[in-house]
Amino acid sequence: MPLTGKQKRLLKQRGQQMADDCRLGKGLFSDEFVGHLNRLLDEKELVKMRFADLEGKDRKVLAKAVCEAVDAELVQVVGRTVLLFRPRPPE
To answer: pTM to 2 decimals?
Structure first.
């Protein structure tokens, strides 16, 4: 289910206070990275990720690919920083 504007605003506010949880370079989008990101999303719901060495349009394309790989919602892409959200699975 897509996030509403209000939900995105609240997540962006939370994201400003967070430190980076992980970094991603051009060659690091691997199964291990996807597994690590899945574990982070299961624990925290909101993950702040930073791209190490990508240019403008490449960042948005890669951010969308990462979201599809981990079944998360893209909250925001600002510069080299990306916010991803996925609700915790029910216990």
So the answer is: 0.87
